[in-house]
Amino acid sequence: MYHAAQIIIGGLVQGSVFAIIALGLSLVHRVTGVINLAQGGFCIISALLLYSLEVSYGWPVPLAFIAAVVGTTIFGVALGAATFVPALSRLGNSSMLMLSAGLLTFIGGLALVIWGSQPYAVPPFSGEQPVTILGVRIPSQGIWIAGTAVIIIAGAWFLMAKTSLGKALTACAENPTAARFMGVDVQRLTLFSFGLTAMIGAIGGAVVAPIMSLQFDAGGFFTNSGFVAVAIGGMNSFPGAIAGGLFLGVAEQLAAGYVSSLFANALALGLLLVTLLWRPQGLFFAGRQRRHDVREDQRVYKSIIRFRGRGAMIWALLGLAVLIALPYMVGSGLLSSLVITGILFIAVIGLDVLMGYGGQVSLGQGGFMAIGGYTAAVLATTYGWSPLVGVIAGIVVSLICAMLLSVVTMRLRGAYLALATLTFGLLIDSLTVGLTDITGGPSGLVGIPSFSIGPYVFASQMSVYYLVLGIIVVLLVAFFGALRSSFGRALQAIRADQTAAAALGINVPRHKMAAFSIAAALASLSGSLYAFDFHFLAPEMVSTSRSFEMIAMLVVGGEATLVGGLSGAALITLLPTIFQPFAAYKTLAEGAILVLAFQYMPDGILGSLARLLQRKRTAPKLPAATLAKGEAR
Amino acid sequence: MSESALEAKAVSITFGGLRAVAEVSFTVPHGSLTALIGPNGAGKTTFFNLVTNLFPPDSGEIMFYGSSLRGRSPAEIAGMGLLRTFQTARVFPGMTALENVLVGAYKETKAGPLQQMLWLPAALREERRLTERATALLDLVGLSVYRDVAATSLPIGAQKLVEVCRAVMARPRLLLLDEPAAGLNDAETAELAALLRAVRDSGITILVVEHNMSLVMDVADQVVVLDLGKLLARGTPREIQGDRRVIEAYLGVEEETA
Question: Which of A141, A359, A425, A479 is found 20 to 30 A from B88 (Cα to Cα)?
């Protein structure tokens, strides 16, 4: 009994932190309709700032705390003003979600550049001595955390319910256009709410710093926990966020105390998938149902890039010739990077079918890479199966998982779909780390053989290069065939307008399922090839950050072009190889590229290039021509 | 007497206290171009929604080539060959005008994704054949020059024409068009008239809700007039133009409209 009380207290302390972050997520979601994944980034920045000021510079705790929170809030406001707020008026909800994922990556990269990759620890605010209440010992920092949570919650409630500022914020959430006409400065209030969440996150991060090991990428942990809490509790309700946070904290601690910490993580994510399936509006408090079509499908297509006819054929053959000759022109270091570019591009092709053509966002492609990679690697290494059979087995397992997951995803659209896939990816992440007996855990799986077909072993980088190139050519020819015909048109019609597509007799669920399966199968293939190429597989090689990276590759390269992703994959993979001294800046650059691409280059590299080329032989000028014809009659 | 494509039998629906459609009965003969007209609030669009079962009628029945539409889903009705367009243009963004029209041919495409992936000659031939037909349709409304332009970058009138082409591409047996001429300029309206005639001559029956009287009088074989949810008159355009009740109820008395 005493043990259980101890665990529950621990859970409530942990849950208070989740509740603080969940509250911040809920606040931004209420005002903007966007789930701001960058939230956890502010926690870690603030915690690391606190470490530097308190431990390195010896500032007194209260001063260091205030400075860390103020500094992080200023950083948050600047970041929001430069990216989030201006992008909000141009991008739909799922794009905003990915932009915020880019911001999270960017913040993590910044922390890596400043603080490096080693973990830090901050001493508790009021000593190590635990406090005893009614015979239960509570770590003193727990009191600090719970107290802070209560203050923040009370403050947020007062702001929203009792002040005119709160009413204006609610108006932004309900109907931004009408609010604008009523004289509410929507942009400024959006920035205000973004800054406020940065501050809430900063306070949460600083107060929790003493009880965790602080590392540059811990922002992901904060975001995930807060996001699971708010999604379970109810996206649009403060009580829901708080209840979700406390519930998640207690459930995780109980599961960790009585089963294992792996189970705790899987439990939380499993719970979230069930919630999304059963009650997407949240388990505890539904809150007000948001009209979530308000900002869907805002994307404007200025021109459309199509590769057709002899010109495209000549370019394709030219490109192929260059790619065939390339290995003889580069050194071995660059060749390895080219191989990895190609392997990742295979997964990006699948993502393009799903996201570029089908309009379904998946933040869980890393999960399918992991399934394919680990299935093939374990079968080949532990059980001595042939790599080819392993690859096929990986694809089969991935397809089965995709079918199961699609029970959830078929019913969801836009941002909710993205969240469900993100949850799936996180679940696989926790499994690859946790199932140590099978996957080797965090230290990875070693001794994976080279890929082979029958007696032929792809031992040299050169041979793997041509293998990957061959696979890519086959895939591109096949998918160009399908996507230029009725299959691709049906997918695009569904992306644009499900109702109108269904009215023309298109089977919407079947096409969504097909796109999802293609993406899963190709990610799986890519993951297996990756493992066989590296002879080693560790969780972070195929994790959720890889999912984000692949989205960056696709968006930077150009969506709905099939080949566009190659330029994105090459850019993100090759740059760190070419500029070795800047390798530490890779994460930072990736985040920045993703954010900038979403804001300023919606068509990607390839799209922008194609537009430049097309401008020369411009399409006929439209309205003018129609008018002239009208006048002639 | 020719077969009837659509037959409304005493169809009624009430919203709250308002009888939006009351005991309306008429037939659309196979192969005809029937226009449904009436002042605002006469129940024209409501009637369309009843036909496509967006909501079911309170009483009465609608027959499509002899079989009842009662209880069928909008998708099922589309599958039977009854297609509709909407008042507002709903072209697919992110696709060219030609691709938009080609989506209409989805149901009749025989080659599956696998055959398309393998670039099988049969799939390529089919694609070429459909592209030719879609281009011919766009040509009919003077838009074939813009076939490779993003559909959403076309003027609204042209978008509506593309949408009609898309519906025609699906080779429905009966095509319901909801105010296709709204937002069209004179030139586009003339293109639309030519398209409607060509479509009818190709054997597709058309029922069109339209406000543009000169278009209706120009192309319709039969005109059905609704007023306040009730059937007011039906006949040839010439008969309707001479009908006093119609002139009073719909066209209004001269002094009033002036």
Answer: A359
